[in-house]
Write a structure and sequence with these properties.
Elements: E1 13-18, E2 21-26, E3 30-31, E4 36-37, E5 56-67, H1 71-78, E6 81-82, E7 88-89, H2 92-96, E8 107-118, H3 119-123, H4 129-140, E9 143-157, E10 165-168, E11 171-180
Antiparallel strand pairs: 1-2, 3-4, 5-9, 5-11, 6-7, 8-9, 10-11
Amino acid sequence: MEIKLKIRFSFMFKITPTIWGDFWEPAENISGPHCSVNASEQSPGEIPAKKGVFMQEKNYVSLWLGTSKSKKSLDKYIKIKYTRDGDFVPSIFARDFKIERYDDDFREAEFDDEKSNNIHELLDGFSYSDVVVEYFKNKIGEELAVPYNSVILLYNFNYDGMVKEIKNGTEYFKFIGVTKYR
């Protein structure tokens, strides 16, 4: 008598494409015929945070508001550099907020000579501003307690909030939050 036993293993992974290559990571909150994965326990509506380089996540935008001395000062703060060998050197902003890496092509930043505490005024003109403004207006209110003159948005990035705010020389920035933008 011959018995044949068929064993099936299912592993679910997703690929996160980046300009540095594809990263494989376990899929989260995926159900299928052979497995059910719920890697993170979170409350409804909560956006799960990614850690380290895996904070890159399609369709999310992370927002920082701050004050800068000038446009030149803000540009210096967010400037990414590369060594002669082509190695990535993080910006001061990335080091301050413990961000290992982000795609500079998906970053928007703006300095305004006039400070404002109105979230709509601060975010007007940025990509997907209608969605982003509406979300943060509902989350933190239209009028902020403190006026700001600088905005940094990282698209396709789900910042984990490890560092909430930083004062670095003439730069002060506060992490406001993350939302889906499409």
